[in-house]
Structures
1.
Amino acid sequence: MRRHLLVGAAALALFGCSKEAPAPEEAQSSATETAQPSASEKLDAVLAAQPEADKARYAARHPKETLEFFGVQPGMTVVDTLPGDVWYSGILLDYLGPQGKVIAADYSPEMWTQFGEYSPKPEEKAKWTTDFAAKLEAKRGEDDAAVTAVHYGSIPDDLAGTADVVLVVRAIHHFMRLEDKGYLTQALEDMKKVLKPGGIVGVVAHRAPEQSADAWAKGDSGYVKQSAVVAAFEKAGFELVEASEINANPKDQPTEKDVVWRLPPTLATSQNNPELKAQMEAIGETDRMTLKFRKPA
């Protein structure tokens, strides 16, 4: 990690019944060992070093609590679904350290063609794995994690059974809304393929009210039902370990006329309506489920 982490001085070690002080090289070695920060301290330092615009969203996105809930630790291999420069690949790059690895995983180029007017140019997605891996490599320091980039639907065989955790943060609704073309089924199989036995999938998703219509809550609006997410993972052979409310927002009570993007940070429906914009800002970011699944050992 490029930013040095400092902790307090090491305590003096005692050696059996001897009254002799340790040799200088022994004392220095002991001090170096005890000076290593804990995983929590390291994550604090990494998060503190992120751009101000991203830190402004910590109160809504709870990155420390989320990563710790999913059990992400330095030295792990972690898949980041729909990765960004910060969320979460940029954070993981520093946090996982030299023994760790970031696998940035984007939707397949074919899946991106299903996004209508929001679909990127096919030639851009065709070379995305090379371009994004190069972008992460350019940010890497000598103490940062190794990096690679892949597409869902074409996970290389040499990555099978290598990952400790797969993060699916604010992305599962895209797979779910396109399940009529099999994209959710394929993604869940890819997650099982890349994970070690006992590996974890961490899901954060915009939560639809359980009483809402299935047709509205399938993901087109950005919202999906927690029960539907759990059912899909269990059908694919995963076990639900635990659910958390760390990313919940009870102020967000969407109706079937609402979309995720009406709320911060997008505020898509109120750009020219100050009163409505103030109402959306008062709600804050979406109510989100946080689910921890395990691939059976």
2.
Amino acid sequence: MHDLSSWTDSVALVTGASAGIGASCVRKLHAAGLRVAFCARRVDRIEALAAELGERAWAIPCDLRDEASIDNMFNAIRDRWGGVSVLVNNAGLGHAAPLGTGATELWREMLEVNVLALCICTREALKDMGDRGHVIHISSMAGHRVPGGSGVYSATKHAVKALTEGLRLELRETGSSVRVSAISPGYVETEFAAQYSKSEEQAAQTYARFPCLQPEDVAEGLLYLLAQPAHVQVHDLLMRPTHQPT
């Protein structure tokens, strides 16, 4: 059991919360007593989640490829709840778009969502955090190795690894007590594989090879990071299914 009493009634923002890891993070944070704002492009999904959770849950439509949409979201949170103390940069996507043959628009979307939006959201959240807060990136094991055929997607997650360490150094230089962490899961049974391969059948085969992580497992990792005492910063949490070979 993770003790998050020090975060009670603090404001968390979870991006990409319409399903999978993001939705699980919202549920876990809300159950721990935080006020949780969460965003996605699929408005019906996040509104249903807000209705499920009730008070302290706020669904905000946002297109993370559009900086103005991100700005509007952060300003709305500041106006209603005073700003963000915990940022969960969960939004991310992948396409099977190899460097030699991939379509530019698919590369661009991965870079815009996985890297640029993460940077913009981090910058805006830091404005709210003052000397206490926690930025958590949901990254991937693809940020620690390069799976075959996924060089561009993997490059975006290697960028997240560099951005995590870069922000840690920036915060140390300024003497801030804000912490930054990344969670890098292996195979998690979500909608990701179907989106990546554009095939429900292939996704089912991917997840049938061995028992995969579940979104709730990753969300538990998030709670573990937040529950650490102020002098402890868990920098990178790597998670794989027990039987994942690579």
3.
Amino acid sequence: MPRPKKWRKVCRMPRATEFVPIGTEYCSEDAVVMTVDEYEAIRLIEHEGFTQEECAGYMKIARTTVQQIHNSARKKLSVLLVEGKPLLINGGEYRLCDGNEPYCGCGGCHRHRRGQMSTEKGDTFMKIAIPVDEKILETSVCASLGRAPYFLLRDTESGKDEFIVNTAADAQGGAGLKAAQLIVDSGANVMLTVRCGRNAADVLKAAGVKIYKTESTGVKENLAAFQEGKLAEMTQFHAGFHGRR
């Protein structure tokens, strides 16, 4: 009987999952592939200054396993630097932090950094994100989360609206996941959308962002419906798409 997998805890997904050397043509077949758990070991040890023992504690694995993961990641970094190859970050045996630990000392979990803001009715603060086609309120909710040109952010505390450019819209792959990380980085704790991929949903949920399914096409109508408690929390997520659509 095979031994069960020991999942590695990851606090957050990388902000960028593709790196291409300037002056070279992108080719996924030539890319060095670093797993998400390898990225997390590099982030904690090299960027945050953790010891291997501290990294093991946060990733919930043995120190010897951390050493193996870290060595593998460093080897891959040396290959892409010396040979000028592109880098892709995906896959691996990991699970995103669910935000339920009493503290998050690694600085990665946005849910803890935002103070675990609740989104229940009656709370004093919510920041709502919606994928939109145009930078006006009288527009439609974009049917594609990852390829939406913009996101509308509504701060219910101040009553202000802000439009941000979706920098993931032109990504060659993983647009939904990158867009989800952009939403998390914006500080939103509610997402209203037509549909959402599984990977993007995992990123949003790990950061404490609640996802609600829109009922009509209009942005203003959906904002009103949500604040009246008429939108249902999303429970079904599609498998995701590869490449541009």
4.
Amino acid sequence: MTPRLSRPQVKANASILVVEDDPDMAMEILAGLKSQGYQPRHAANGTDALASIWAEAPDLAIIDRTLPGFDGLSLIAKMQEEGFHLPVLVVSALSSADERIRGLKAGGDDYLGKPFVMGELFARIEALLRRPTDVRETALTVGPLHIDLIERTAHRGSREMDLLPREFKLLEFMMRRPGQVLPRSMLLEEVWNYRFVPESNLVNVHMGRLRHKVDLPGEIKLIHSVKNVGFMLDEGN
């Protein structure tokens, strides 16, 4: 039997620095974070943010992309130069794919476009706080499969696979758990964020499309069905 993976625990009362120059937006975020049990503090510009981090490094920073003085990406670079490697969520009205890639390449761990709902902000924060803090993954490799988590590209060997966003997320989830049987209920919860199990063939349909792109005729099959349970990704060795 495959051992069940334990989920890292989110630190209780985590401290979060909100770097946002719009006072109304800052107030809304701070109030929301307090309602979730976090310990937020605020800086309106990069200079004040650095001073706050030096005084007491937070567990996570939410940084607006556009700030007075030097922008959010410059702030992230300055933080890294000074040895602060904390999780960073970039928020911005500049939400195109190119801007998202720039934000992630600059050192942001996640990128959330404005406007956003508070529930999504909380979910992104929780996910970042669950991540190990010693390594920031930018790619995953399992057997012949390789995905770039920043560029959002996927390859099997030298062959590039054109994956839709949900297919990419599904493959990423499986690649983080090679050899583990993944029940359909788990996939619905983790990939689609369902907190209940609907009577639907949603997983089967998306998995079928993904398998057609991952496993071409003549190639060793990497995605396997587990009867009456779910699916499993094999490394193909």
